[in-house]
Amino acid sequence: MDNKVTIFGAGSVVFSLGLVKDLCLTKELNGSHVCFMDINGEVLDVIYALGRRYAEDLGADLTFEKTTEREVALRGADFVINTATVTHNEYFMQRRRHMTADLGYFYDQTGMPEYYNLQLMLDVARDMERFCPQAWVLLAGNPVFDGTTLMTRETNIQVCGLCHGHYGYAGVARVLGLDPESVTWQAPGLNHNIWLTDFIYCNEDMYPKLDRWIAEESEAYWEKLAAEEMAIPTQMSRAAVHQYKMYGLMPVGDTPRRGGWWYHTGLEARAHWYDPNGSKDTPTGRDKVLERKAEKYEQMRAAAYDEKVRPVELFGDEMTPEQHIPIMNGLVNNVEGQFQVNVPNNGVLPGIPDDVAVEVPAIVNKKGIQPLRVPPLPRKIMLECIYPDWLDMERTLEAVLTGDKSMMLYGVLEAKETKSYQHGLEVLDALFNIEPNAPMAHVEPIDEHFAWPKNW
Hints:
By secondary structure, this protein is of the alpha/beta class. 47% of the residues lie in helices and 15% in strands.
Protein backbone atom coordinates (compact mmCIF):
# COMPACT_ATOMS: atom_id res chain seq x y z
CA MET A 1 0.00 0.00 0.00
CA ASP A 2 1.32 3.43 -0.91
CA ASN A 3 2.24 5.50 2.16
CA LYS A 4 4.66 8.33 2.58
CA VAL A 5 6.79 7.69 5.65
CA THR A 6 8.92 10.65 6.68
CA ILE A 7 11.81 10.02 9.04
CA PHE A 8 12.40 13.44 10.53
CA GLY A 9 15.89 13.74 11.95
CA ALA A 10 17.17 10.80 9.92
CA GLY A 11 20.75 11.58 10.95
CA SER A 12 20.29 9.10 13.78
CA VAL A 13 21.66 6.64 11.27
CA VAL A 14 21.50 3.37 13.25
CA PHE A 15 17.94 4.01 14.40
CA SER A 16 16.81 5.16 10.95
CA LEU A 17 18.34 2.10 9.29
CA GLY A 18 16.48 -0.10 11.76
CA LEU A 19 13.24 1.54 10.65
CA VAL A 20 14.12 0.90 7.01
CA LYS A 21 14.87 -2.75 7.79
CA ASP A 22 11.52 -3.17 9.55
CA LEU A 23 9.76 -1.54 6.60
CA CYS A 24 11.52 -3.86 4.18
CA LEU A 25 10.49 -6.90 6.21
CA THR A 26 6.84 -5.79 6.54
CA LYS A 27 5.47 -6.96 3.22
CA GLU A 28 2.05 -5.36 3.83
CA LEU A 29 3.78 -1.97 3.65
CA ASN A 30 5.54 -2.64 0.36
CA GLY A 31 4.99 0.26 -2.00
CA SER A 32 5.73 2.81 0.69
CA HIS A 33 7.78 5.91 -0.06
CA VAL A 34 10.42 6.81 2.51
CA CYS A 35 11.54 10.42 2.88
CA PHE A 36 14.67 11.05 4.94
CA MET A 37 14.92 14.57 6.35
CA ASP A 38 17.89 16.02 8.24
CA ILE A 39 19.84 19.27 8.21
CA ASN A 40 23.15 17.37 8.16
CA GLY A 41 23.84 16.62 4.52
CA GLU A 42 26.61 14.10 5.16
CA VAL A 43 24.60 11.76 7.38
CA LEU A 44 21.58 12.26 5.13
CA ASP A 45 23.58 10.93 2.17
CA VAL A 46 24.75 7.94 4.22
CA ILE A 47 21.29 6.85 5.38
CA TYR A 48 19.83 7.43 1.91
CA ALA A 49 22.47 5.21 0.28
CA LEU A 50 22.17 2.53 2.95
CA GLY A 51 18.39 2.54 2.85
CA ARG A 52 18.24 2.05 -0.91
CA ARG A 53 20.83 -0.74 -0.83
CA TYR A 54 19.13 -2.42 2.12
CA ALA A 55 15.85 -2.51 0.19
CA GLU A 56 17.71 -4.06 -2.74
CA ASP A 57 19.21 -6.71 -0.46
CA LEU A 58 15.82 -7.66 0.96
CA GLY A 59 13.92 -7.38 -2.31
CA ALA A 60 11.55 -4.77 -0.85
CA ASP A 61 9.35 -2.56 -3.00
CA LEU A 62 10.20 0.81 -1.44
CA THR A 63 11.16 4.15 -2.93
CA PHE A 64 13.34 6.76 -1.25
CA GLU A 65 14.10 10.45 -1.26
CA LYS A 66 16.19 12.76 0.88
CA THR A 67 15.76 16.42 1.73
CA THR A 68 16.97 19.10 4.09
CA GLU A 69 13.68 21.01 3.70
CA ARG A 70 11.01 20.46 6.33
CA GLU A 71 8.08 21.34 4.07
CA VAL A 72 9.23 18.88 1.41
CA ALA A 73 9.51 16.15 4.02
CA LEU A 74 6.12 16.80 5.60
CA ARG A 75 3.96 17.60 2.60
CA GLY A 76 1.64 14.67 1.94
CA ALA A 77 3.15 12.45 4.64
CA ASP A 78 1.02 9.70 6.16
CA PHE A 79 3.43 9.02 9.03
CA VAL A 80 6.14 11.23 10.51
CA ILE A 81 8.61 9.38 12.69
CA ASN A 82 10.17 12.24 14.62
CA THR A 83 13.62 11.32 15.91
CA ALA A 84 14.98 14.86 15.62
CA THR A 85 16.64 16.46 18.59
CA VAL A 86 18.57 19.57 19.37
CA THR A 87 19.84 19.21 22.92
CA HIS A 88 19.86 15.39 23.00
CA ASN A 89 22.51 15.20 20.32
CA GLU A 90 25.21 13.15 22.02
CA TYR A 91 28.09 15.49 21.20
CA PHE A 92 26.17 18.54 22.35
CA MET A 93 25.29 16.71 25.56
CA GLN A 94 28.95 15.89 26.09
CA ARG A 95 29.84 19.56 25.70
CA ARG A 96 27.07 20.54 28.10
CA ARG A 97 28.12 17.91 30.65
CA HIS A 98 31.65 19.27 30.66
CA MET A 99 30.38 22.81 31.13
CA THR A 100 27.98 21.94 33.94
CA ALA A 101 30.64 19.84 35.67
CA ASP A 102 32.74 23.00 35.89
CA LEU A 103 29.69 24.70 37.43
CA GLY A 104 29.47 22.06 40.15
CA TYR A 105 26.97 19.50 38.82
CA PHE A 106 27.45 15.76 38.48
CA TYR A 107 26.39 14.49 35.06
CA ASP A 108 24.48 17.60 34.00
CA GLN A 109 21.81 17.43 36.71
CA THR A 110 20.94 21.13 36.54
CA GLY A 111 17.16 20.87 36.39
CA MET A 112 17.07 22.88 33.15
CA PRO A 113 13.97 22.08 31.02
CA GLU A 114 14.56 20.83 27.46
CA TYR A 115 13.05 23.91 25.84
CA TYR A 116 14.80 23.56 22.48
CA ASN A 117 13.56 20.01 21.89
CA LEU A 118 10.03 20.84 22.96
CA GLN A 119 9.86 23.89 20.72
CA LEU A 120 11.09 21.78 17.82
CA MET A 121 8.40 19.16 18.44
CA LEU A 122 5.71 21.84 18.55
CA ASP A 123 7.01 23.47 15.38
CA VAL A 124 6.91 20.15 13.52
CA ALA A 125 3.36 19.41 14.71
CA ARG A 126 2.18 22.86 13.64
CA ASP A 127 3.77 22.39 10.24
CA MET A 128 2.04 19.02 9.98
CA GLU A 129 -1.29 20.78 10.49
CA ARG A 130 -0.49 22.73 7.32
CA PHE A 131 1.13 20.05 5.14
CA CYS A 132 -0.21 16.67 6.34
CA PRO A 133 -3.06 17.25 8.81
CA GLN A 134 -4.26 13.62 8.74
CA ALA A 135 -0.84 12.13 9.43
CA TRP A 136 0.31 10.41 12.60
CA VAL A 137 3.48 11.59 14.29
CA LEU A 138 5.29 8.75 16.04
CA LEU A 139 7.53 10.55 18.50
CA ALA A 140 10.86 8.88 19.17
CA GLY A 141 12.86 11.86 20.45
CA ASN A 142 13.00 12.88 24.10
CA PRO A 143 11.36 14.18 26.19
CA VAL A 144 8.53 11.88 25.12
CA PHE A 145 6.31 12.64 28.14
CA ASP A 146 6.47 16.42 27.79
CA GLY A 147 6.48 16.38 23.99
CA THR A 148 3.49 14.09 23.55
CA THR A 149 1.48 16.14 26.04
CA LEU A 150 2.50 19.42 24.40
CA MET A 151 1.69 18.42 20.82
CA THR A 152 -1.68 16.88 21.67
CA ARG A 153 -2.71 19.96 23.66
CA GLU A 154 -1.54 22.60 21.22
CA THR A 155 -2.38 20.98 17.86
CA ASN A 156 -4.90 18.63 16.28
CA ILE A 157 -2.25 16.22 15.05
CA GLN A 158 -2.51 12.54 15.99
CA VAL A 159 0.45 11.82 18.29
CA CYS A 160 1.85 8.61 19.69
CA GLY A 161 5.00 8.73 21.77
CA LEU A 162 7.17 5.60 21.73
CA CYS A 163 10.04 4.37 23.88
CA HIS A 164 11.69 0.99 24.36
CA GLY A 165 12.23 1.22 28.12
CA HIS A 166 9.31 -1.13 28.77
CA TYR A 167 11.45 -4.00 27.50
CA GLY A 168 13.11 -3.85 30.90
CA TYR A 169 10.59 -6.49 31.95
CA ALA A 170 12.54 -8.91 29.74
CA GLY A 171 15.75 -8.12 31.63
CA VAL A 172 14.07 -9.10 34.89
CA ALA A 173 12.72 -12.27 33.30
CA ARG A 174 16.06 -13.38 31.86
CA VAL A 175 17.93 -12.97 35.14
CA LEU A 176 15.26 -15.11 36.81
CA GLY A 177 15.68 -17.78 34.13
CA LEU A 178 12.35 -17.09 32.41
CA ASP A 179 11.62 -16.86 28.70
CA PRO A 180 10.52 -13.23 28.17
CA GLU A 181 8.27 -14.28 25.28
CA SER A 182 6.23 -16.39 27.70
CA VAL A 183 5.81 -13.65 30.31
CA THR A 184 2.54 -11.75 30.67
CA TRP A 185 3.36 -8.29 31.94
CA GLN A 186 2.06 -4.77 32.35
CA ALA A 187 4.02 -1.62 33.24
CA PRO A 188 1.92 1.57 33.20
CA GLY A 189 2.86 5.07 34.32
CA LEU A 190 4.52 8.04 32.63
CA ASN A 191 7.37 7.79 30.17
CA HIS A 192 10.59 6.93 32.03
CA ASN A 193 8.40 6.41 35.11
CA ILE A 194 6.70 3.01 34.64
CA TRP A 195 6.12 0.20 37.12
CA LEU A 196 5.76 -3.56 36.72
CA THR A 197 2.25 -4.13 38.03
CA ASP A 198 1.80 -7.57 36.41
CA PHE A 199 4.55 -10.21 36.10
CA ILE A 200 3.01 -13.60 35.25
CA TYR A 201 4.67 -16.79 33.96
CA CYS A 202 2.71 -20.00 33.37
CA ASN A 203 -0.26 -18.46 35.20
CA GLU A 204 1.90 -17.83 38.27
CA ASP A 205 2.89 -14.50 39.83
CA MET A 206 6.68 -14.13 39.52
CA TYR A 207 7.14 -11.49 42.21
CA PRO A 208 7.77 -14.16 44.89
CA LYS A 209 10.49 -15.60 42.62
CA LEU A 210 11.98 -12.12 42.30
CA ASP A 211 11.89 -11.75 46.09
CA ARG A 212 13.81 -15.03 46.49
CA TRP A 213 16.39 -13.92 43.93
CA ILE A 214 16.93 -10.65 45.79
CA ALA A 215 17.27 -12.40 49.15
CA GLU A 216 19.43 -15.31 48.03
CA GLU A 217 21.24 -14.46 44.79
CA SER A 218 21.42 -10.72 44.12
CA GLU A 219 24.63 -9.98 46.07
CA ALA A 220 26.48 -12.84 44.39
CA TYR A 221 25.16 -11.69 41.00
CA TRP A 222 26.45 -8.14 41.50
CA GLU A 223 29.80 -9.30 42.89
CA LYS A 224 30.36 -11.74 40.02
CA LEU A 225 29.70 -9.16 37.32
CA ALA A 226 31.83 -6.59 39.10
CA ALA A 227 34.74 -9.05 39.48
CA GLU A 228 34.53 -9.97 35.80
CA GLU A 229 34.40 -6.26 34.86
CA MET A 230 31.08 -6.81 33.15
CA ALA A 231 28.36 -4.20 33.16
CA ILE A 232 25.59 -4.64 35.70
CA PRO A 233 22.28 -4.14 33.85
CA THR A 234 20.54 -1.07 35.26
CA GLN A 235 17.30 -3.04 35.31
CA MET A 236 18.78 -5.44 37.89
CA SER A 237 21.03 -3.00 39.72
CA ARG A 238 21.02 -2.18 43.42
CA ALA A 239 19.16 1.03 42.56
CA ALA A 240 16.37 -0.88 40.82
CA VAL A 241 16.04 -3.34 43.70
CA HIS A 242 16.13 -0.52 46.24
CA GLN A 243 13.31 1.29 44.43
CA TYR A 244 11.33 -1.97 44.40
CA LYS A 245 11.78 -2.23 48.16
CA MET A 246 10.67 1.39 48.57
CA TYR A 247 7.56 1.19 46.41
CA GLY A 248 6.52 -2.46 46.22
CA LEU A 249 6.70 -2.62 42.42
CA MET A 250 9.74 -3.09 40.20
CA PRO A 251 10.69 0.06 38.24
CA VAL A 252 11.09 -0.77 34.57
CA GLY A 253 13.45 0.36 31.82
CA ASP A 254 14.63 3.94 32.20
CA THR A 255 12.81 4.33 35.53
CA PRO A 256 15.60 2.84 37.69
CA ARG A 257 18.12 5.05 35.85
CA ARG A 258 16.46 8.01 37.50
CA GLY A 259 15.20 7.35 41.02
CA GLY A 260 16.04 9.83 43.76
CA TRP A 261 18.91 12.31 43.80
CA TRP A 262 20.70 10.13 46.36
CA TYR A 263 21.59 7.63 43.64
CA HIS A 264 23.42 10.33 41.68
CA THR A 265 25.52 12.38 44.08
CA GLY A 266 28.79 11.42 42.40
CA LEU A 267 30.88 8.59 41.03
CA GLU A 268 31.03 6.79 44.38
CA ALA A 269 27.24 6.72 44.67
CA ARG A 270 26.86 5.68 41.05
CA ALA A 271 29.33 2.84 41.56
CA HIS A 272 27.43 1.56 44.59
CA TRP A 273 23.91 1.82 43.24
CA TYR A 274 24.52 0.94 39.60
CA ASP A 275 27.83 -0.36 38.34
CA PRO A 276 31.30 -0.24 39.95
CA ASN A 277 32.82 -0.65 36.49
CA GLY A 278 31.21 2.60 35.28
CA SER A 279 27.77 2.65 33.67
CA LYS A 280 26.81 4.63 30.58
CA ASP A 281 25.34 7.27 32.90
CA THR A 282 28.76 8.44 34.04
CA PRO A 283 31.11 10.79 32.17
CA THR A 284 33.62 8.07 31.24
CA GLY A 285 30.87 5.57 30.48
CA ARG A 286 29.06 7.98 28.20
CA ASP A 287 32.32 8.86 26.44
CA LYS A 288 32.74 5.16 25.67
CA VAL A 289 29.22 5.09 24.25
CA LEU A 290 30.15 8.02 22.01
CA GLU A 291 33.29 6.22 20.86
CA ARG A 292 31.27 3.13 19.92
CA LYS A 293 28.71 5.29 18.10
CA ALA A 294 31.46 7.03 16.15
CA GLU A 295 32.96 3.67 15.19
CA LYS A 296 29.56 2.36 14.14
CA TYR A 297 28.90 5.43 12.04
CA GLU A 298 32.23 5.07 10.25
CA GLN A 299 31.39 1.44 9.55
CA MET A 300 28.04 2.44 8.14
CA ARG A 301 29.50 5.29 6.11
CA ALA A 302 31.99 2.91 4.52
CA ALA A 303 29.24 0.37 3.82
CA ALA A 304 27.06 3.00 2.17
CA TYR A 305 29.52 3.48 -0.68
CA ASP A 306 31.26 0.10 -0.94
CA GLU A 307 29.43 -2.23 -3.31
CA LYS A 308 31.33 -5.19 -1.88
CA VAL A 309 29.74 -4.62 1.53
CA ARG A 310 26.05 -5.36 1.66
CA PRO A 311 23.92 -3.80 4.42
CA VAL A 312 22.10 -7.07 5.05
CA GLU A 313 25.42 -8.73 5.91
CA LEU A 314 26.13 -6.07 8.52
CA PHE A 315 22.69 -5.55 10.00
CA GLY A 316 20.83 -8.78 9.37
CA ASP A 317 17.36 -9.59 8.14
CA GLU A 318 15.31 -9.83 11.33
CA MET A 319 12.87 -7.25 12.68
CA THR A 320 14.12 -4.89 15.37
CA PRO A 321 12.23 -4.69 18.68
CA GLU A 322 11.06 -1.15 17.84
CA GLN A 323 7.30 -0.65 17.61
CA HIS A 324 7.03 2.08 14.96
CA ILE A 325 6.58 -0.01 11.82
CA PRO A 326 4.30 -2.67 13.40
CA ILE A 327 2.08 0.16 14.69
CA MET A 328 1.95 1.66 11.19
CA ASN A 329 1.03 -1.77 9.83
CA GLY A 330 -1.78 -2.05 12.34
CA LEU A 331 -3.18 1.37 11.50
CA VAL A 332 -2.94 0.92 7.73
CA ASN A 333 -3.51 -2.79 7.16
CA ASN A 334 -5.44 -3.83 10.27
CA VAL A 335 -2.64 -6.17 11.38
CA GLU A 336 -3.66 -5.96 15.00
CA GLY A 337 -1.21 -6.00 17.87
CA GLN A 338 -0.71 -4.85 21.45
CA PHE A 339 1.93 -2.21 22.09
CA GLN A 340 3.24 0.09 24.80
CA VAL A 341 2.39 3.67 23.85
CA ASN A 342 2.34 7.23 25.16
CA VAL A 343 -0.99 8.91 24.44
CA PRO A 344 -3.37 11.33 26.22
CA ASN A 345 -4.78 9.64 29.29
CA ASN A 346 -8.53 10.09 28.75
CA GLY A 347 -9.37 8.06 31.83
CA VAL A 348 -6.98 5.17 31.21
CA LEU A 349 -4.68 5.62 34.26
CA PRO A 350 -6.65 6.67 37.38
CA GLY A 351 -5.53 9.86 39.09
CA ILE A 352 -4.09 11.61 36.00
CA PRO A 353 -5.91 14.31 33.98
CA ASP A 354 -7.23 13.38 30.55
CA ASP A 355 -4.87 15.71 28.67
CA VAL A 356 -1.67 14.36 30.23
CA ALA A 357 0.23 11.73 28.22
CA VAL A 358 0.50 8.37 29.96
CA GLU A 359 2.47 5.26 29.03
CA VAL A 360 0.10 2.30 28.87
CA PRO A 361 -0.67 -0.81 26.81
CA ALA A 362 -2.80 -0.30 23.72
CA ILE A 363 -4.45 -2.32 20.99
CA VAL A 364 -3.64 -0.98 17.52
CA ASN A 365 -5.64 -1.77 14.41
CA LYS A 366 -7.43 0.11 11.65
CA LYS A 367 -9.71 1.69 14.27
CA GLY A 368 -6.71 3.53 15.69
CA ILE A 369 -4.57 3.37 18.82
CA GLN A 370 -6.85 2.22 21.63
CA PRO A 371 -5.23 2.41 25.08
CA LEU A 372 -6.29 -0.18 27.64
CA ARG A 373 -7.56 0.89 31.05
CA VAL A 374 -5.21 -0.11 33.85
CA PRO A 375 -5.72 -0.37 37.63
CA PRO A 376 -4.53 2.49 39.87
CA LEU A 377 -0.87 2.56 40.79
CA PRO A 378 -0.07 2.39 44.52
CA ARG A 379 -0.70 5.67 46.31
CA LYS A 380 2.93 5.97 47.40
CA ILE A 381 4.12 5.73 43.80
CA MET A 382 1.57 8.32 42.75
CA LEU A 383 2.57 10.75 45.51
CA GLU A 384 6.35 10.35 45.32
CA CYS A 385 6.95 9.51 41.65
CA ILE A 386 4.00 10.15 39.31
CA TYR A 387 2.59 13.42 40.65
CA PRO A 388 6.02 15.12 41.00
CA ASP A 389 6.83 14.18 37.39
CA TRP A 390 3.46 15.49 36.21
CA LEU A 391 3.95 18.79 38.06
CA ASP A 392 7.47 19.18 36.70
CA MET A 393 6.15 18.60 33.17
CA GLU A 394 3.44 21.22 33.65
CA ARG A 395 5.99 23.80 34.82
CA THR A 396 8.20 23.00 31.84
CA LEU A 397 5.40 23.41 29.31
CA GLU A 398 4.25 26.64 30.94
CA ALA A 399 7.78 28.00 30.74
CA VAL A 400 8.15 27.01 27.08
CA LEU A 401 4.77 28.40 26.02
CA THR A 402 4.91 31.66 28.00
CA GLY A 403 8.64 32.34 27.73
CA ASP A 404 8.75 33.06 31.47
CA LYS A 405 12.44 33.01 32.28
CA SER A 406 11.78 32.87 36.01
CA MET A 407 10.15 29.46 35.54
CA MET A 408 13.28 28.21 33.81
CA LEU A 409 15.25 29.51 36.76
CA TYR A 410 12.95 27.68 39.18
CA GLY A 411 13.95 24.35 37.66
CA VAL A 412 17.62 25.12 38.22
CA LEU A 413 17.03 26.35 41.77
CA GLU A 414 15.22 23.08 42.57
CA ALA A 415 18.28 21.02 41.56
CA LYS A 416 20.02 19.50 44.58
CA GLU A 417 23.47 20.69 43.51
CA THR A 418 22.51 24.34 43.07
CA LYS A 419 24.31 26.06 45.95
CA SER A 420 22.58 29.44 46.06
CA TYR A 421 20.26 31.77 44.24
CA GLN A 422 23.23 33.52 42.63
CA HIS A 423 24.67 30.18 41.58
CA GLY A 424 21.33 29.36 39.93
CA LEU A 425 21.42 32.61 37.97
CA GLU A 426 24.95 31.88 36.76
CA VAL A 427 24.00 28.37 35.67
CA LEU A 428 20.88 29.58 33.87
CA ASP A 429 22.89 32.18 31.99
CA ALA A 430 25.49 29.60 30.97
CA LEU A 431 22.84 27.14 29.76
CA PHE A 432 20.97 29.80 27.81
CA ASN A 433 24.14 30.84 26.05
CA ILE A 434 25.56 27.45 25.11
CA GLU A 435 24.74 27.24 21.43
CA PRO A 436 23.06 24.02 20.31
CA ASN A 437 25.02 22.44 17.49
CA ALA A 438 21.84 21.64 15.53
CA PRO A 439 19.33 24.48 16.02
CA MET A 440 16.55 22.94 13.93
CA ALA A 441 13.67 24.67 15.69
CA HIS A 442 12.22 27.77 14.08
CA VAL A 443 12.20 29.73 17.30
CA GLU A 444 12.71 33.35 18.11
CA PRO A 445 16.09 34.29 19.53
CA ILE A 446 16.28 33.17 23.13
CA ASP A 447 16.47 36.73 24.44
CA GLU A 448 13.24 37.58 22.62
CA HIS A 449 11.21 34.50 23.50
CA PHE A 450 12.30 34.13 27.10
CA ALA A 451 12.12 37.17 29.38
CA TRP A 452 11.84 37.94 33.05
CA PRO A 453 8.36 38.88 34.30
CA LYS A 454 7.57 42.58 34.48
CA ASN A 455 8.89 44.31 37.59
CA TRP A 456 11.34 41.41 38.12
